[in-house]
Amino acid sequence: MKILIVEDEQHLADGLRFNLEAEGYEAVIAGDGLVALETLESKKFDAVVLDVMLPGADGFEVARTMRERADYTPILMLTARGHAEDVLNGFAAGADDYLPKPFELEIFLARLNGLLRRRQWLETESKTPSVVMVNGREIDLENLEMRNGDEHVRLTLMEAKLLGYLIENEGRAVSRKVILEEVWHLQEDTDTRAIDNFIVRLRRMLEDEPDNPKIVQTVRGVGYRYINQAVE
Ligand code: CA
User: Fold this and answer.
1) Do residues 30 and 4 touch, judged by C-beta distance below 8 A?
2) Across all residues in the chain, what is the average pLDDT?
3) What is the pTM of this model?
4) For helices 84-93 and 59-68, what crossing angle results, to 10°?
5) Ligand 1 centre from 14 Cα, in Å?
6) Which CATH number is 149's domain given?
7) Confidence of residue 82 (pLDDT cuts 50, 70, 90)
C-alpha cells in the first residue's frame, strides 16, 4: 500500500511517514499542494493524507483538482480542530474522511485503515446489487458513479457507502449515531453535521426537488429514512 502524505509541517510529515513505514506502508511526502498534484500525476497511490493549509495549493484545491482529473484515490483530510467549515469544505471538494489536528497516532492509523478497508469493501463485498435505479437515475455503487441522462456524477467512497447502507435499510428510520457507527465506523465524538452534509449531496443527486426530499427523508428527532418509490 502506497500513501502520499501532503503536509508542510516537516516534523509531522516525517513522523507520519516513519509510523506508516513501521506498519508496512510505503509513504511519500509532498510539502506543497502543487508538488502533490504533480506527484499524483506521475504515480498511483492507495490513499492520500491531505493537510488543509499548504503552500502552493491548499488541501481543498488539491482534492478538487484530483476529482476534476477523475482521480478518485481515497483522501483523508487533516483539518484544524473545531473548524467545522474545513470538514464541510473538505467533503464538498471530494475528501472521503477527515481527522482533526492534533490527533493520536493510533487514531490516524485506524482512520487510514478504515478508508482503505472501505475501498476494499466497495470492490469486493456486495451486499446490494452494484447498480441500482433510484428515481430514474442509474447508480453504480461499485464504480462510484451516477448517470441521469446526459448527467454524469462521480460519487465519493463515503457517499456510495452511505447510500448503500440506506438502501439496505430501505423503509427504516436510521439515526445519525447508528449511521456514524455503521457507515463511518466512528463513535459519537464526531460532528454529526458531516452526515447532514452527505445527505444534502445525496439529495442533490437523487431528488427532483432536493429541498423537498421524497427519497432520502428526514425523520424528525431520529435521522433519515430511504424510500425508493417517490410518494405523493
Ligand atoms: Ca499545514
Assistant:
1) yes
2) 87
3) 0.69
4) 20
5) 13
6) 1.10.10.10
7) low
